[in-house]
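A.,

Following up on our hallway conversation. Structure tokens first:
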């Protein structure tokens, strides 16, 4: 298969994995940058992730304009994806989700930092973006390119940004890396919430985050985890 064919298949599988691991429910979405045309990306039509099939996948330019829409309905929040792809040439996949275990860290003063080794993939610091800071009261959905670009600015060169009262943004150098980061972001949030109730927490050091983060994105680790999650999701 070509890289595009492989990525299209992985995009369907990624939707199924994220749904099975309870990172997404009826809402949330995942995309990848076109491997042969960096000014375009692929994203499902507007559908619950668990139900996404190959026929749902659509191609867009970076401003969110569809290339092959047909009669399919589009996700309203595709500017999340276009904004990041415009700002970050290194990013090859984008995930937006509303993980319930992560939400509290976007609405409190408690930072979300990695406390166990597999969470190193999320990065040392996780910023919080508040749409109200720039755009005032909205429906909190990221539906314009100005909003998408503002969110990408908050992400900066990181892998994760929280969205106050909404969810989070996760990016990666591949679909598999972004899925791994999304899953372990949620697991880390759960463990951190439990640990904070027990006493003072010891976080991973910057060096530990760097070294373990490098280990996780290697094919040996990434492919092993992907195979496990894909099998659990019935793929």
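Then the amino acids I'd put at each of the 235 positions:
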């Amino acid at each position: 298969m070509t890289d595009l064919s492989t990525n299209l298949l992985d995009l369907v599988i990624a939707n199924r994995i994220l749904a099975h691991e309870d990172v997404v429910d009826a809402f949330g979405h995942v995309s990848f940058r076109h491997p042969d045309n960096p000014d375009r990306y692929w994203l499902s039509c507007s559908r619950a992730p668990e139900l996404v099939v190959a026929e749902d996948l659509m191609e867009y330019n970076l401003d969110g304009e569809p290339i092959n829409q047909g009669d399919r309905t589009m996700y309203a929040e595709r500017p999340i994806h276009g904004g990041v792809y415009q700002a970050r040439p290194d990013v090859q996949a984008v995930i937006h989700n509303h993980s319930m275990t992560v939400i509290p860290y976007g609405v409190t003063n408690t930072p979300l930092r990695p406390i166990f080794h597999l969470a190193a993939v999320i990065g040392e610091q996780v910023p919080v973006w508040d749409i109200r800071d720039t755009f005032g009261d909205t429906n909190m959905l990221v539906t314009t390119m100005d909003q998408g670009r503002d969110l990408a600015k908050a992400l900066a060169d990181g892998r994760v940004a929280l969205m106050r009262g909404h969810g989070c943004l996760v990016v990666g150098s591949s679909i598999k890396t972004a899925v791994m980061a999304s899953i372990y972001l949620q697991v880390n949030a759960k463990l951190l919430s439990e640990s904070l109730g027990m006493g003072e927490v010891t976080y991973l050091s910057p060096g530990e985050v760097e070294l373990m983060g490098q280990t996780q994105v290697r094919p040996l680790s990434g492919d092993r985890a992907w195979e496990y999650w894909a099998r659990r999701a019935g793929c």
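The chain has one domain: 3-232. Curious whether your intuition agrees with the design.

B.
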